[in-house]
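Task 17 of the worksheet. Students: predict the tertiary structure of the chain below and write it out as structure tokens. Keep your answer in the requested format; marks are given for formatting as well as content.
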Amino acid sequence: MYADFILNKSIERQFRAFRRGFAMVTNESPLRTLFRPDEVELLICGSEVGTS
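Model answer:
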């Protein structure tokens, strides 16, 4: 229950806003077909490869 709160409930409002904004940018856009899910994750989260 605590983990659910920390990992889900505590960020629910912020994630909803992010998802709404992301959908506004990508809905009916070529971006939906240009990128695979793992590429979208890389665009959003970035990569630690090559950083020091």
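Marker's comment: The CA atoms of residues 1 and 7 lie 10 Å apart. The chain has four helices and no strands.
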